[in-house]
Amino acid sequence: MQLLEERIRKDGIVKEGNVLKVDNFLNHQMDIKLFEEMAKEWKRLFAGCGVNKIFTIEASGIGIACIVAQEFGCPAVFAKKTKTKNIASDVYKTKVESFTHGTVYDVIVSKEYLLPSDRVLIIDDFLANGAALLGLIDLVNAAGATLVGAGIAIEKAFQPGGDLIRSKGVHLESLARVKSMTVEGGVEFCR
Amino acid sequence: MQLLEERIRKDGIVKEGNVLKVDNFLNHQMDIKLFEEMAKEWKRLFAGCGVNKIFTIEASGIGIACIVAQEFGCPAVFAKKTKTKNIASDVYKTKVESFTHGTVYDVIVSKEYLLPSDRVLIIDDFLANGAALLGLIDLVNAAGATLVGAGIAIEKAFQPGGDLIRSKGVHLESLARVKSMTVEGGVEFCR
Prior knowledge:
2 copies of one chain form a homodimer. The first copy, chain A, has helices at 2-11, 32-45, 62-72, 131-142, 161-167, and strands spanning 13-15, 19-21, 29-30, 53-57, 76-79, 91-98, 103-110, 119-127, 146-156, 172-182, 186-189. Chain A has 191 residues and is an alpha/beta fold. In chain A, the strands form 3 sheets. Chain A has a 6-stranded mixed sheet with strand order 5-4-8-9-10-11, with helices on both faces. The termini of chain A are close together. Strand 5 of chain A pairs antiparallel with strand 3 of chain B, so a sheet runs across the interface.
């Protein structure tokens, strides 16, 4: 998606350790007008798929997921990273290893909000090693819901997550696919 | 706000320990159409205040904040609860005690995204003891930004946060103010 690629070129900052900092517009400060355009693009890419639920993981996926849910006219649900006392015991649970933080954490979703009748589109800001996305897919499968696909804002295509997810037959649509990036040279996208 | 109060009566569940579970529509599954109506109400309540930034805290405030930012035509920024390596060292930081989790955590926001020229509306899902809101106000003040006010979805008016924040002269608009609640009797709202 050209608009997103242009924004990454303009405002994204490549840092040591394969970090692409896009917190100017994506995951700290959030440009809602950009989110709206991204949502329209996913609506086009998943047209006719009968999506009735958007599913994401806290925290940085939530804002994008809400604007996508608005575009699809359905609710959004976010998986939570720890078990709080406000969550019923009746949850689906999986484990996710965080690339960013170097930790493993539990991810849960209430059984009430992922149903066998649901046709789920997963939305997230980043795809790198695929750990978070695999966790969300686990939860969708545990619920017996239908996974329509996954919409990712930025895929680091030089890391294995995208190929891994596609090899499982998941309809994956990444709006910007980073082929390579360096601190000096910036970002190059897949063509 | 009648629509929100009705929804709390219909789908909210009162649990032991002063817990009001509204994760059916507010902070786990998210009803975006409801968020749109809430956003319109805050737009009315803060009309002419020159709001140019919506500020919230992860995770459950993010979805509401994005829809509010859309209504105001401005970006949303969320404060983060831990320091990740993706965040520059150039942050404002404060401490918040969590009522839900019984812990104290650091809350940060990048100095780039709260500016002295900003006119900030804080948005959050709950106000109880006011700890999170006081933390967000600290960050706005640290940035030298102007605090226009705070919009809260559900205020537990029987807890001290609301009075405390109002006593500081903050323009606080809670869309539903819970006067009392019991497991047996449900929720009673302030009139």
